[in-house]
Amino acid sequence: MEQVHPAPVSHRTAISTSRAARSRELLYRASEAAEDADGVLSRAQLRAIGIGRDRVAAHVRAGRWRLHGRHTVALHTGVLSDRARAWRGVHESCGDARVDGVSALQLAGVTGLSDQMVHVSLHHLCQVRDIDGVVQHKVSRRAEGECTLPGLPRTPPALAALRAAQWAVSDRAAALFLVLPVQQRLVTAEHLREAHEAYPGRRRRALVAQLIEDAADGAHSLGELDIIPLCRRHGLPPPDRQVLRRVDGRSRYLDAYWKEVGLALEIDGEAHSAGLEVTFDHLRQNAVTMQGDTVLRMNLIGLRLEGDAFFAQVSTTYRSLLRRRR
Predict the structure, then answer these.
(1) Angle at CA of residue 239, ends 234 and 244, nearest 5°
(2) Highest taxon of the source (predicted)?
(3) Which of 88, 125, 191, 325 is deepest in the core (most CB within 10 A)?
């Protein structure tokens, strides 16, 4: 029987097959590397894999990949996720860029923040340029332990909250960036205090320190809170402080009380938002009101930021009650 031999493979076909295999291997390695970054890599990362400028350009022309700046390549053509946008902010900023401030808080899981820009910090010696969708902040130095988180370069939540407060456009926003991570149990007030001691920053030092103390120990802060200047500015006589009252058979303390008109002021510290404290506060307020007194409430951090607005309400209520008693 005549033996049939396979047709010889040409040298050109062998080279083509080898190139195709090599291309598939590179694509697999790139996809694997981009998995933790939601589908984006930097040109430097692609070069390290073996995919240079020409291959990138070929994938872009073919409609498989898309460029998102000078240095960022998406291995797809869809919309970038929040995490991918954060990686883009790092890649485009270069240097020692790290996701920081409010963006790092969002990535850590803080809810209730709506900033869509990606905030990154860079050492003050690094060059910066305008990048669409990215806000760059220069820092004088890196804090100890700042660069220890794995994966996406980002600052730990406590330091991120501190810097977000220092970079905020208003004192109200600064308070929000410090309060939310504590309320949502991502950091403790002690973590914020330690971060502030290690990295005090240049902006809002006094306010940030006071807000941290308010979050750390509201009851202690209430005892030291001097509301007399606010009373004077709004024409109010000084109230009695920490007045002991019997409410429902229990001893209760009112933070401030104007006996002559039956007006009580309750200033809630951070502890009032924890667990069942809100329920107990409502019971106490209702019981005081049932005894004929008027109760106004404000929270401690709100008092720091909007003290005059709150005390304008107190003053209006005091005068209204005074007129009724005459």
Answers:
(1) 150
(2) Bacteria
(3) 88
